Amino acid sequence: MDSLTPRLILASSSPRRKMLLQQIGLTFDVLVSNIDERLDHDLPPERIAEQLAFEKAQAVAASCSNALVLGADTIVVDERHILGKPADAADAYRMLAHLSGKTHQVITGLTLISTAHIPQKILMRHETTDVKFAMLTPRDIERYIETGEPLDKAGAYGIQGKGAMFVEWIHGCYNNVVGLPLYLLTRMLREMSFHFE
Fold this sequence. Notes:
Blueprint: E1 7-10, H1 15-23, E2 29-30, H2 45-61, E3 67-78, E4 81-83, H3 89-99, E5 103-114, E6 121-133, H4 138-146, E7 167-171, H5 174-178, H6 182-191
Parallel strand pairs: 1-2, 1-3
Antiparallel strand pairs: 3-4, 3-5, 5-6, 6-7
Helix pairs in contact: 3-4
């Protein structure tokens, strides 16, 4: 990367997002934005995901020059109800029982902010994937919660981990369910004229 190319900054501490960026060979720095992730339930879920991604990117971009800041936020939506990270094991149980046997949506909002432009250049998009869960028994849910995996995941499961055994099928981008839709991201990077190949 030459000195004229802005550095890519991931505004997230998510190990899954870091892994996915590394998977496609991107070099980046991590600066975590500590925003208050309050949801505006008057907005449609797609806009909520985009807005949270924008707020994360904006908070980091405010202190960076010649950078391309990536903000991302993934939400799980069941019948228009947003399922965030569970507060505790009982909340995780409630979420997983609610998802059992049904199809839900995973939506990731992405924002890119270029601080190399004056005014800043901003791009916002989202990706949606349908996920069908198998019917879960109470013991299925209890055993999964005992692993600890659901407690820091939106919707109380991780498709890249043990939660994969509950997923009958998906329609759409798999990486979106993990937390970063790579195809959409690469299109956005090209739109921002960011050279990474």
